[in-house]
Design brief:
By secondary structure, the chain is an all-beta fold. It has a single domain, classed as Immunoglobulins (Immunoglobulin-like). The chain is built from no helices and 7 strands.
Amino acid sequence: MPAMKPAVKDIAVNLLNAPRTIMLGNKNYDLKFSVYNLKESERDIKMVFSSKEVSVNPADVEISLKPKEKKEISVSISPTGDGKLDLTLTVKEKVEVKYTETVLE
């Protein structure tokens, strides 16, 4: 499967498995993603899943990735509507902002 283009540069996200058919009802389906840090520095990211037609558990996942590290994450989906199902994945990077104040005497 082709890599999805995330909003965070130098993070590769691939869908590893997905069901071929999805039925309405109480059935849950597992999706597995690989997340790969392409940079030479450690990164903290948050993956947010959203959909009008599918409930996702967990709806967001926070992970830390070491340089060049790859991790797999799993989410469970359950369809809530009939027809085409859209699932949006947003990847955000956590950035620590340090504030320092210079005091002149």
